[in-house]
Amino acid sequence: MCEQELQAVKVEDALLEQPESRADSHRITCHDICKDPDHRKLAICSIICGLSCLGIMSLMYSVKARETRKRLQNENTQETQQMVQNYSEKACKWGIGSIVAWVGLILIFPLLLGFLSYVVTFID
């Protein structure tokens, strides 16, 4: 294994050993949903299957996460990892938000049409 993989395994082991509080034990993070560290696939799917303007924001943060990881690959500090993780989390949140917003619009549109016809019947 290379040095980076060993460090990643050590970090994961340290996180698993830490006791979790009750609130955190039921919290689902973006990394639980998607194993892609940059969430690039989620960002592309959110452009295609969601609101594209929100999906583009997801893709921007995904690219920032990947480029920051590549640029600061040799500099493996806590600050660098936090910056990459922030970009990755934002990419995930924008991507999921894009898909949820699209599904919401698809569901709410027929309801609004039904409500409009209901209101029109009362006017007549």
Automatic annotation (TrEMBL):
InterPro entries in the record: CD225/Dispanin_fam
State the Pfam families in the record. Answer: CD225
List residues traversing the bilayer: 41-63, 99-123
Is the keyword Metal-binding assigned to this protein?
A: no
Q: Which domain of life is it from?
A: Eukaryota
Which keywords label this protein?
A: Membrane, Transmembrane, Transmembrane helix
Where does the record say this protein resides?
Membrane
Entry keyword annotation includes NADP = no
Name the family.
Answer: Belongs to the CD225/Dispanin family.
- What name does this protein carry? Transmembrane protein 265
What organism does the UniProt record list as the source? Labeo rohita (Indian major carp)
